[in-house]
Automatic annotation (TrEMBL):
This is Phage protein. It comes from Laceyella sediminis. It comes from the Bacteria.
Length: 94
């Protein structure tokens, strides 16, 4: 599993996508690809785009995966450590 500081993670995000709204993540539960923009379009908290399957907010997907409540899926998530030393699990970029 990838472990990064939040600075490294943000830098990788910019290198890959250029525009944060275009950043896409894969749900570890169902494989759905979702972008930050998808969450903005639904008036959802954009920071949930890498923590919750969008299936939590729309009916079509039948998936309610969330890093906050679901088990360890270490190959499909990464661990980000912020300046305060707090660990945040996030979906992988795709
Ligand atoms: Zn899902």
């Amino acid at each position: 599993m990838v472990m990064q500081t939040d600075d490294q993670w943000t830098l990788e995000l910019w290198h890959r996508f250029g525009d944060i709204r275009k950043a896409t993540f894969e749900c570890p539960g169902c494989g759905h690809i979702q972008s930050i923009q998808d969450f903005i379009n639904l008036n959802l908290d954009p920071s949930r785009a890498y923590k919750d399957c969008i299936g939590n907010f729309v009916d079509q997907l039948g998936c309610n995966f969330s890093v906050d409540s679901d088990g360890d899926l270490s190959d499909k998530t990464r661990l980000i450590v912020n300046r305060e030393g707090k660990e945040i699990r996030v979906f992988n970029f795709i």
